[in-house]
């Protein structure tokens, strides 16, 4: 029984914080860096610790880049601070127009599952449901099919 409790405790603590190399830390100074609306990494000496924002019983929290910690979404700027109403949307990913399609959000079963960012230089491709080069993506997110 004691081994079981230790194993569960280790699994739970690991799911909240991951220690190791993170790509954002290799090319940036020490500090806090957003890696998504619900998580951030603290870089120190090229190594990082990923922190996931907790889900308190009353409300989920999101990363507040202005303050450097998780916060109530009402206190955070777009795109993370304003939850998308998914109650009437079909299950899929949607481009976030507030970030010029450099991020997207996921709706499933009427629930908003948060924002994800595309890698630099990419935009969200609604047709393929993934991040893609702008020249491969139709407007309004990309330039595919437009005359130069």
Question: Main sheet: which strands, in order across?
Answer: 1-4-3-2
**Which fold does the CATH topology of the largest domain refer to?**
Antimicrobial Protein, Tachycitin, Chain A
Main β sheet profile: 4 strands, antiparallel
Mean pLDDT: 78
Number of domains: 2
Q: Terminal Cα separation, in Å?
A: 68 Å
String of helices and strands: HEHEEEEEEEEEE
The Cα radius of gyration reads: 18 Å
Say how many strands there are.
11
Layout of strands and helices, then pairs:
Layout: H1 2-16, E1 17-20, H2 23-26, E2 31-36, E3 39-44, E4 47-52, E5 62-64, E6 69-71, E7 92-95, E8 103-108, E9 111-117, E10 123-125, E11 130-132
Antiparallel strand pairs: 1-4, 2-3, 3-4, 5-6, 7-8, 8-9, 10-11
Protein name: Chitin-binding type-2 domain-containing protein
Domain Chitin-binding type-2: 22-82, 83-143
GO molecular function: chitin binding
